[in-house]
Design brief:
The chain is of the alpha/beta class. The protein contains 18 helices and 16 strands. The radius of gyration is 23 Å and the shape is globular.
Length: 486
């Protein structure tokens, strides 16, 4: 952890052209050879001098594109100005006006395509490292022991139930509690945080960071209840009619894994990425000396992970840390089309992950005892662009080849979990099973019920899920204050 003792801030009297010449600050990291064998955080964070240097690079645009491209509308220009002035706690308070989870988003948000993608400096060079600054502020606030609690409105007398405790739920809870509503979050698992704790590895997002942010929500007055499976233990109608909740937000995410539908997926040693990461993260497989092994032992094994997104990258880098002999990504397009964050791909390369691009599994191979022995793939080539603009992968006939594997992880995406929808018949869904909402208010077809995040849009980023939570919170607050449903 860098030294957080702030130096006296210097006056920003550098001419604009001089500021534009300052090189982008590099994030200190664990050495790749060392970190590939542990679950400690890869990025080490900035110290005050580095944060101030990076804040100096901001050219104070009159219409900041960074803010326009932030899904939760953080006042980034004001935050950076406070960092430059050395007012770190004030910067944290300003950040928390719009982002209740800055220590989390500063670590896992894809800033390069969002806030940093709107930075004017990025048009001709390197954008301001907004994500690094955000993390610095949150870490400074945490280490100081002065996590801020925003102002609270007087109690409204209204109760809101939130189903799920991932980023959409936590963001909405933070906004609603500030509006004076009583908020209770229901989580099906034994630990709070949703995908933040079961899906994202310790080396990218330490669980203690998530717990601290949740504890801060508790300080604000949010109530939490674990081991409650809404749709089983209690229904949406039960929450509203029997327990007196004025509104319910469904924020359960999209946790039903997709598979390849190829022969051999039943073999021992084959996991969905959801199951693999949940077993490692939530069942503590990353601490093998303290907990019984909750996953098939990867030590000395060949591990193949199918997919190219952040989840696949998390799984393959996790397998490396669990002692895999080889850890290989298999993806049907080229590396240029990988949807994972550039930083995660770069880190995977540094850590020794192998990449088999333009390849797609057609069969999982096994022995007579039902254990995985390999992944049979076919080579692909890129054809014409599809509706999303990405070139469509096409099989090259007769190009099959085998990759040895004793563990395979399928990380090609997820779909909606149907539990809530199946027990709430008047809740309309689309053909994929996602809940249909009004895009502006997050209202569903059922009066008083709102939905947001991956259960509406399909899998997305943490910060987009938080943006959905903020939009839902506004819709709920409007409904509770006016009683209008149209």
């Amino acid at each position: 952890m860098p030294d957080m003792n702030p130096a006296a801030p210097a006056k920003n009297d550098l001419p604009l052209k001089e500021r534009m010449k300052i090189a982008r600050t590099r994030m200190p990291e664990q050495d790749p050879a060392v970190r590939a064998c542990n679950f400690l955080e890869v990025n080490l964070g900035l110290d005050p001098a580095a944060a101030a240097n990076e804040a100096t690079r901001c050219i104070s645009c009159p219409k900041p594109g960074c803010m326009m491209q932030c899904p939760v509308n953080v006042k980034i220009d004001q935050v950076i100005a406070l960092v430059y002035a050395g007012e770190y706690l004030k910067a944290a308070a300003k950040m928390r006006e719009d982002n209740i989870l800055p220590a989390i988003t500063g670590r896992v948000c894809p800033q390069e395509t969002q806030c940093e993608g709107g930075c004017a400096l990025g048009k001709k060079g390197n954008s301001v490292a907004i994500g690094y600054i955000e993390r610095f502020i949150a870490d400074y606030e945490r280490i100081s022991g002065q996590l801020g609690v925003p102002p609270m409105a007087p109690p409204s007398g209204k109760k809101v139930a939130i189903v799920g405790s991932g980023p959409t739920a936590l963001s909405a809870a933070g906004d609603l509690i500030q509006k004076g509503h009583r908020v209770r979050v229901f989580e099906a698992l034994h630990e709070l945080g949703g995908v933040l704790v079961y899906g994202i590895p310790e080396f990218r997002l330490p669980k203690d960071i998530v717990r601290l942010e949740i504890d801060n929500l508790r300080k604000m007055g949010v109530e939490f209840e674990t081991n409650v499976v809404v749709g089983k233990s209690v229904t949406i109608d039960g929450l509203m009619n029997e327990e007196g909740y004025s509104a319910v937000l469904v924020a359960t995410g999209a946790g039903l894994p997709q598979f390849l539908n190829v022969p051999g997926e039943h073999l021992n040693g084959v996991y969905s990425a959801n199951e693999f990461l949940t077993r490692v993260n939530l069942m503590r497989a990353y601490k093998p000396d303290e907990y019984d092994e909750p996953v098939y032992d990867c030590r000395g094994k060949d591990v193949v992970v199918v997919g190219g997104g952040n989840v696949a990258m998390d799984a393959v880098r996790t397998s490396k840390r669990l002692g895999a002999r080889t850890a290989t990504i298999v993806y049907r397009r080229s590396e240029v089309e990988l949807p994972a964050r550039r930083e995660e791909v770069h880190h995977a390369h540094e850590e020794g992950v192998e990449f088999r691009m333009l390849s797609n599994p057609v069969e999982l191979l096994g022995d007579e005892k039902g254990w995985l022995t390999g992944v049979r793939c076919i080579r692909m080539e890129l054809g014409e662009p599809d509706v999303k603009g990405r070139r469509r992968p096409i099989e090259v006939k007769g190009s099959e080849f085998d990759i040895p594997a004793q563990v395979a992880v399928i990380g090609i995406g997820t779909t909606s979990n149907p539990l809530i929808q199946s027990t709430t018949p008047d809740l309309k869904t689309n053909k994929w099973g996602y809940i249909i909402v009004d895009p502006e208010t997050a209202r569903t077809s059922k009066r008083g019920v709102f939905a947001g995040g991956d259960i509406v849009t399909g899998s997305a980023t943490v910060i987009l899920a938080m943006g959905a939570g903020r939009k839902a919170a506004k819709g709920i607050d409007d409904y509770l204050r006016t009683g209008e449903w149209a």
